[in-house]
Structures are given as structure tokens and as C-alpha cells.
Amino acid sequence: MFKQSVFIKSAANKSGWIDDQIPEVCFVGRSNVGKSSFINTLANNKKLAKVANTPGKTRLLNFFDINNSSFRLVDAPGYGYARISNDMKIEFGIMMEEYLTTRPNLKVVCMLVDLRHKPTNDDIQMYDFLKANEIPVLMVGTKLDKLKKNEYVKNEKLIKETLHFNSSDIFVKVSNLDKLNIKESYEALIRLLEV
Ligand code: GDP
């Protein structure tokens, strides 16, 4: 788990990004997948990323300093929320594309999927985009506590098949509720960041 974590700032566009050499991991996933909960669990701070803020509303990248500037966590808005306007979807796409393709600090993307469900078209598009841009991915399957073993084994296979999961990426299954595999996720992240 993180030794230290602190919110730095939100940015609506490139001018708000931080100009230095500190490596970044960007967290992406569908609204409600458990991204805020996972960040809070990693940080052991229930309030770091706001859990249950209106899904899909914020169009900002949120920057957090981790382990006294050892790296930064960049929390992206959840995608796939049906009730946001097309303009907002386009805005989200432009902002994410710019960040993911031009940010030299970005070393790895942590992408979250719900272990109970087959990935959606949004998930497939996101993963395709990350792979087309050769960005290493730590895939985190959430809500492990809601499934029996035979179910999560079957679903992990389905998720990997649907996404054409690349064997060079890492897949972990977690429960934020029961704190399962949180240490493993953190260690995988540190390895990918090489910090
Ligand atoms: P976000 O929209 O991706 O940031 O998702 P949240 O972290 O706000 O979580 C969405 C909902 O899923 C909340 O009700 C959480 O309590 C719940 N949740 C998140 N992670 C888990 C998990 O690992 N297990 C279970 N059972 N519920 C979870």
C-alpha cells in the first residue's frame, strides 16, 4: 500500500498538467467499476478519491502525489456513463487521447473492469487504444468478493478473450470490500513503474 498519498490538483486540459519528470500511472475504467474505492484502498484513505461522486460528471484529471514524489497517480473520469451528453463524451475522448498519447510522464495505465461482467464496447475501445499506443497495462478485475471461484475463473477467461488481452500485461483480481490482493496489485504497479 502507499506509504503516503496527497491530492495535488485537478486539470481540465493540458495547461493544468504538471511539468516535471515524475512518472505517472493513470487509472481508467467505467463509472461504478470501483475505481475510487480501489484508489482509496491502495492509499488506506477512505476519502482520497471521492467515492460515489455523481458518475460521469467530472471531466477532470485528478493528480495525486504518492510516496513523497516517488510517482503520481492520475485519476481519470469514469467512462461509459449512459446519461452524459455526446458533447461530454467527445470532450472526454479528446482529453484522454491527448493525455494518453502525448504525456511523457505516463508509464502505465491501471484499467479496471468489473469481474462480474463481460467487457463493454467502451472497455474494448479503451484497451485497444492503450495497446495501439504501446502503453503497459495493469488490468484490475474488481468485486472479487461477489463471485464464487468457478465464476471468477470463467469470467477472467471471458474478459481476457473479449479484450484480446495481451500476455505481456498483468491481470489481478481484487476486492476492495474484503481487501483481497491489494498488496499484489501495489507490487505489480511498482514493478511496472520501475520506481
Ligand atoms: P467508481 O465510479 O469506479 O469510482 O466506483 P466506486 O469506487 O464509487 O464504487 C462503486 C460501487 O461499487 C460502490 O457502491 C462501492 O462500494 C462498490 N464497490 C467498489 N469496489 C467493490 C468491491 O471490491 N466489492 C464490492 N462488493 N463492492 C465494491
TrEMBL record:
InterPro entries: G_ENGB_dom, GTP-bd, GTP-bd_ribosome_bio_YsxC, P-loop_NTPase. GO terms for molecular function: GTP binding; metal ion binding. Gene3D superfamilies: P-loop containing nucleotide triphosphate hydrolases. SUPFAM superfamilies: P-loop containing nucleoside triphosphate hydrolases. Residues 21-195 form the EngB-type G domain. It comes from the Bacteria. Pfam families: MMR_HSR1. Its cofactor is Mg(2+). One of its GO terms (cellular component) is cytosol. GO terms for biological process: division septum assembly. Keywords: Cell cycle, Cell division, GTP-binding, Magnesium, Metal-binding, Nucleotide-binding, Septation. Belongs to the TRAFAC class TrmE-Era-EngA-EngB-Septin-like GTPase superfamily. EngB GTPase family. Necessary for normal cell division and for the maintenance of normal septation. This is Probable GTP-binding protein EngB.
